[in-house]
Amino acid sequence: MQPAEIAVLTLAGPWGPYVVAATERGVVAAEWATTEEELLAGLRRRLGPVQLVSDGAPAELLAAARPVLAAILAGEPAETDPIPIDLDDRPRFDRLALGAVRGIRWGQTASYGAIAREIGAPRASRAVGGAMGRNPISLVIPCHRVIASDGTIGGYGGDGWIDRDRQLARKEALLAREGVTVARRAG
Q: Phi and psi of 155, rounded to 5°?
């Protein structure tokens, strides 16, 4: 098996470093407050052998994505549609749900149920929530824009090393930067 060629970019973000990795096909991973080594270790678990490269298609892709990602991290409106993504290793349902979320624009939200309906699985809102929690490319795929059908914040997965309150606070802050205010459920 040939190692996947991976380029990595680290940007300063409001919650620490934002580390992004790309293959020749697109961004394959992006995580908050991690290191390049930790991100690469996760990619090895997902993809098998990887080889870090500093030039070629993966590096060019990240260089093109850098201004868009820097704008978003600075709280400026920007859309990630032009950034190619590589979800080839993800389950079909996750690819469908995450693909639908890419269509949610800056300053807008959609419910888990709306995403489920959009992908032809109207009873799968909880499964959509699971797919959001497994999103390997935070911000590029704006899962923070997916909320509960009652207009409350819903959940926010990823970054399993931080507690739920901090995860939800990050989601609230990301939405607030986009001019969106949502409430937490009572209880």
A: -110, 180
Catalytic residue among 65, 143, 147, 175: 143
- pTM comes to 0.91
* Residue 186 pLDDT: 63
Buried (b) or exposed (e) across 47-68, using 16+ Cβ within 10 A?
beebeebeeeebbebbeebeeb
Q: Report pLDDT digits (tens) over 22-77.
A: 999 999 999 987 899 999 999 999 999 999 999 999 999 999 999 999 999 999 99
At 168, list the tokens: 């939800």
**Class of the domain covering 4-73:** alpha beta
Distance CA 161, CA 185 (A): 23
Neighbours of 73 (CB within 10 A): 17
CA 37/CA 31 separation, integer angstroms: 12
Q: Domain spans of the chain?
A: 4-73, 92-177
For residues 15 and 34, give the distance between their C-alpha atoms in angstroms, rounded to a whole number. Answer: 10
Give catalytic status of residue 143 as yes or no: yes
pLDDT, tens digit, 9 for 90 and up, residues 150-181:
999 987 765 455 577 888 888 999 999 999 99
The one-letter amino acid code at 29 reads: A
Residue identified by tokens 């001019």 is: 179
At the topology level of CATH, where does 92-177 sit? Arc Repressor Mutant, subunit A (1.10.10)
